[in-house]
Design goal:
Layout (H helix, E strand, L loop, with lengths): L8 H21 L2 H26 L1 H4 L2 H10 E12 L13 E7 L5 H8 L9 H10 L2 E7 L2 E9 L2 E4 L4 E4 L4 E9 L8 H15 L4 E7 L3 H9 L3 E11 L2 E6 L3 E3 L2 H10 L1
Parallel strand pairs: 7-8
Antiparallel strand pairs: 1-8, 1-9, 2-3, 3-4, 4-7, 5-6, 9-10, 10-11
């Protein structure tokens, strides 16, 4: 009796790629029967990968997470509002009496990557290895908020090439743009407009580096951040939905206009 040996992750990805290429070819040629066969092969390889995942992690621990992971492998979408703001515009600030300080350093020289790794169990959405690797490689300015020597919040600022976790892609921004791709303030310190104060601290420093536009994208479900960026006079520029079916993906702007090149759209909006 033969025993099934699951493929390695590298081999599994290559098999998916082969099946997807065949599927696209068959659909273009109108060979529906063969397209159906390749679809079954793709789904089958995905299921085998999931079974391997369950065996490695344990059926009991993974029973609830596996269906969600399987669904994400086959289909994923997210929608966000993209905002922009002139760096030269002044932020509205109210006088604050506290001991908070701000510091902006290149990611590789900052204490923030180590702080994020230490906090990833408490705030799992802030830790993405590809994001940290790209930030250190591209010298992204990381802005930290400190109460004494303790970090109580941060803003990740990206210039040039930025890894965006929602799309699992590295996006190149125009040379005069700075992208806010993540921020966090510890719960005990919220409600003090700390992100606004941190950006007011960072703005003249960014301007001195030749940057003139701040960009941000906020997920549709994040109502608190949407209100905060509206209060800080960020202008909504577009609603962008990212849709991925298996290994094929597309962006949709404002619910109607499909496109593939996000970098070209950002460049176009920067000139408007």
């Amino acid at each position: 009796m033969s025993i099934y040996k699951p493929p390695s992750k590298k081999k599994f990805i290559s098999l998916q790629g082969i099946y997807t290429i065949r599927l696209q070819r068959d659909l273009q040629c109108g060979r529906l029967f063969y397209a159906l066969r390749e679809s079954v092969n793709t789904i089958g390889s995905t299921v085998k990968h999931m079974l391997t995942y369950l065996n490695e992690k344990g059926w009991r621990r993974s029973a609830f997470g596996a269906p969600k992971l399987l669904a994400r492998l086959l289909f994923f979408q997210t929608e966000s509002t993209w905002f922009s703001r002139d760096v030269a515009l002044r932020f509205r600030l109210n006088p604050q009496q506290d001991t908070l300080g701000f510091k902006m350093l290149p990611a590789a020289d900052s204490r923030l990557p180590q702080w994020i790794q230490a906090r990833k169990e408490e705030f799992p959405w802030i830790y993405h290895p590809k994001e940290l690797e790209t930030a250190c490689r591209e010298n992204h300015p990381y802005l930290t908020v400190q109460d004494g020597k303790e970090i109580i919040g941060f803003i990740k600022l990206g210039i040039n090439r930025v890894y965006i976790h929602d799309f699992d892609q590295i996006i190149r921004f125009p040379s005069e743009s700075c992208f806010i791709y993540d921020s966090l303030v510890l719960p005990a310190y919220r409600g003090r407009r700390i992100v606004q104060r941190a950006l007011a601290y960072a703005a003249p420093r960014l301007q001195s580096q030749g940057l003139r536009i701040l960009w941000a994208h906020i997920a549709a479900y994040n109502h608190a951040s949407l209100r905060a960026f509206d209060y800080m006079d960020f202008e909504p520029r577009a609603k962008i939905r990212y849709v991925r079916i298996h290994r094929s993906w597309v962006y949709v702007r404002d619910g109607f206009y499909p496109f593939r090149n996000l970098e070209a759209l950002i460049e176009e909006m920067s000139r408007e």
